[in-house]
Amino acid sequence: MKNIPVCRKEAIYYAIALLCLTLGTLALTVYTAVRFTGFLLCCAAGALAVLGVLSRLGRTRAWARRARHLLLVLLAAGFALFAALEVRVLSWARTDSETPAAAIVVLGAGVNGTTPSLSLETRLTAALAYAQDHPEAPIVVSGCQGPGEDITEAACMAGWLEAQGIPPERILREDRARDTEENIRYSLALLAERGIGGNVAVVTSSYHLCRAAHHMERMGGAMVPVAAPMPAKYLPLSVNYYIREAFAMAAELLLPNH
User: Fold this and answer.
1) Are 127 and 139 in contact (CB under 8 A)?
2) What gap in Å lies between CA 204 and CA 186, rounded to an integer?
3) Of 37, 210, 233, 242, which residue has the fewest beta carbons closer than 10 angstroms?
4) Looking at residues 9-28, what average pLDDT do you find?
């Protein structure tokens, strides 16, 4: 087969692919807290390498040109969908301090033994501040016991809030939920059993509020968002979570019963 020289455009594809692969490998093996972004970077490296090969072959083969055009269309559609979902995720990353709420629901996150993880502690800190401003609202803490957790997320959250001065009788424990959908469903059921209706303030990580609102809307509830942002020094971790959340939202919309 006649050798086809590499042109400048293809060299750029390969150079960017190598950079993405290097950064992705580092994220997957060294700074593993952002491994989802690392996985995406490795996928991007593969796509760019394929584009480079197809661009090179496309100078002499019609099928390679068509394959390259199809891949570019698919990548453009994927980026457009990602951008639309990311805008939606960002639009919910806020606290509504004006709308009254009949109750507060705090969504669980990881527990390290019996200690709140970073994500859970940020949610509890935001929940405490909101609860102090709304002293009449009962608080539902929602989350079961997962791998590596010595107690349920609900028990961990209840203990933390009680240690900060929240009366135990104000806290309702929901300890069955395994994911966001169950957090919302079981918490609403717990409130309904006690005759509590109306707007519900949902406290969770800023990036997670959009998915919580999606489930709340599906179940006919009215949600007041209360954002728990990550500390500024964890910006790479926060960016990773926001990127991951757009894909989680895509899965919720495309596979609602998965």
Assistant:
1) yes
2) 16
3) 233
4) 94
Q: How far apart are CA 231 and CA 240, in angstroms?
A: 14
Distance of CA 79 to the CA centre of its chain: 18
Cα 217 from Cα 225, distance rounded (Å)? 13
What is the DSSP secondary structure assignment for residue 144, as one 8-state letter?
-
Question: Strand, helix or coil at 95?
Answer: coil
What's the average model confidence in pLDDT over 201-208?
97
Contact 106, 139 (CB under 8 A): yes
Q: Is-contact 143 109, C-beta < 8 A?
A: yes
Q: How far is CA 110 from the centre of its chain?
A: 14
The answer as to CATH 3.40.50.620 being correct for domain 103-232 is yes
Cα Rg for the chain, rounded, in angstroms? Answer: 23
Taking only the tens place, the pLDDT of each residue in 71-94 is: 999 999 999 999 999 999 999 999
Neighbours of 37 (CB within 10 A): 22
- In this structure, are residues 250 and 227 in contact, taking their beta carbons and an 8 Å threshold? no
Question: Can you tell me the distance from the alpha carbon of 104 to that of 212, in angstroms, rounded to the nearest whole number?
Answer: 13
The confidence score (pLDDT) of residue 1 equals 40
Is-contact 126 251, C-beta < 8 A? no
Per-position b or e across 87-114, b if 16+ CB within 10 A of its CB: ebbeebbebeeeeebbbbbbbbbbbeee
Residue 6 in this model has a pLDDT that exceeds 80 = no
d(CA 31, CA 77): 30
Q: What's the N-to-C CA distance of the chain in angstroms?
A: 48
Return d(Cα 148, Cα 111) in angstroms, integer. 8
